Amino acid sequence: MKILIIGGAGYIGSHVSRLFLDQGYDITVYDNLSSGCRENLFKEGEFIEGDILDYPFLLETMGKGFDALVHLAALKAAGESMTAPEKYSVNNICGTINILNAAVNSDIRRFIFSSSAAVYGEPDYLPIDENHPTRPENYYGFTKLEIERLLSWYDTLKGLKYASLRYFNAAGYDVDGRIRGMERNPANLLPVIMEVAAGKREKLKVFGNDFPTKDGTGVRDYIHVTDLASAHMKAFEYIQNTGESITVNLGSGEGLSVMEILETARSITGKPIPAEITGRRSGDPAELVASAQKARELLSWTAEFSDVETLVSSSWKIYSY
Ligand code: WQD
């Protein structure tokens, strides 16, 4: 089986690539290396440096013949999407339209898409299932929702079968330490904590401790990247076997607070990890937790590596290197 992994040099893409290679798939990574890195490429796979805004090159690449594609190439900073929406329109929406058109014109009809829990916005109830209303509160989430709508139309009109995977908070690293590329200037909680532990940053700012949660700090559903990767594989197999498109949440179903992660990181790293409570960050909901029931039922998928110890220790293996 030949799989094209667009955005395969990035944080999540490299873990997806690793797993497909481990399972014997023939993979080609297509990436412009704007946020992905060469360090995340594997010698067993092919690499094509290219941009999703370059339609002729996408078409030429897809003409090599693939059984499916995984699309993870996107800008993903929710805060930036509110101040620079133009970039998000072009990269996320126009880029995906190019990929969709090149795919259907190259007879590729299997499409695994990285969507996000950001499509839901502020929750009406917890845990959030796939029937929860979609009211994104940032432009990034809006772009993901628009792409889901495009996918649905291409299914109806062109027979494209897709899996739209709504990731909750991706975290952790390959437990065998085979993926070493670190994100540049991370803003997400766990890499920030790791940078403080490694002495690259002075302290963690805890964005609020007065939320109505177990300890007052924000609660999120952290899902290990290797669990995300295995869901991509199972989603591909599902589409192959059933010929049906699906939209599913990918989360562990467990909420972890900022303090729980911080305390675990202090204990695993043995570092003090200074932290200061600051005001809330604008737009941060108190709690986001997924219902992972649909993925469990349809894909027989469950999170195996998403306990707090594995999330932190697999990250520390990379950051302490
Ligand atoms: C987690 C918790 C913060 C940093 C973002 C995107 C979302 C999705 C996942 C892609 C919150 C707290 C964080 C810090 C802190 N991306 N925090 N100090 O905001 O839940 O989700 O990544 O699809 O679209 O918005 O993730 O890691 O930034 O925050 O206290 O320095 O950690 O307030 O409670 P978030 P995060």
Q: Please, could you describe this protein's structure?
A:
By secondary structure, this protein is of the alpha/beta class. The chain contains ten helices and 13 strands. The chain has helices at 11-22, 55-62, 78-83, 85-105, 139-158, 189-197, 225-242, 258-269, 293-299, 308-319; strands spanning 2-6, 26-31, 46-49, 68-71, 110-116, 161-167, 169-171, 204-207, 219-220, 222-224, 246-250, 256-257, 275-278. Helix 1 (11-22) links the parallel strand 1 (2-6) and strand 2 (26-31). Helix 2 runs parallel beside helix 4 (85-105), helix 4 (85-105) runs parallel beside helix 5 and helix 8 (258-269) packs across helix 10 (308-319). The structure holds UDP-4-deoxy-4-formamido-beta-L-arabinopyranose (WQD).
What is the secondary structure topology, with strand pairs?
Elements (H helix, E strand, L loop, with lengths): L1 E5 L4 H12 L3 E6 L14 E4 L5 H8 L5 E4 L6 H6 L1 H21 L4 E7 L22 H20 L2 E7 L1 E3 L17 H9 L6 E4 L11 E2 L1 E3 H18 L3 E5 L5 E2 H12 L5 E4 L14 H7 L8 H12 L2
Parallel strand pairs: 1-2, 1-4, 2-3, 4-5, 5-6, 6-11, 7-10, 8-13
Antiparallel strand pairs: 9-12
Bound molecules: UDP-4-deoxy-4-formamido-beta-L-arabinopyranose.
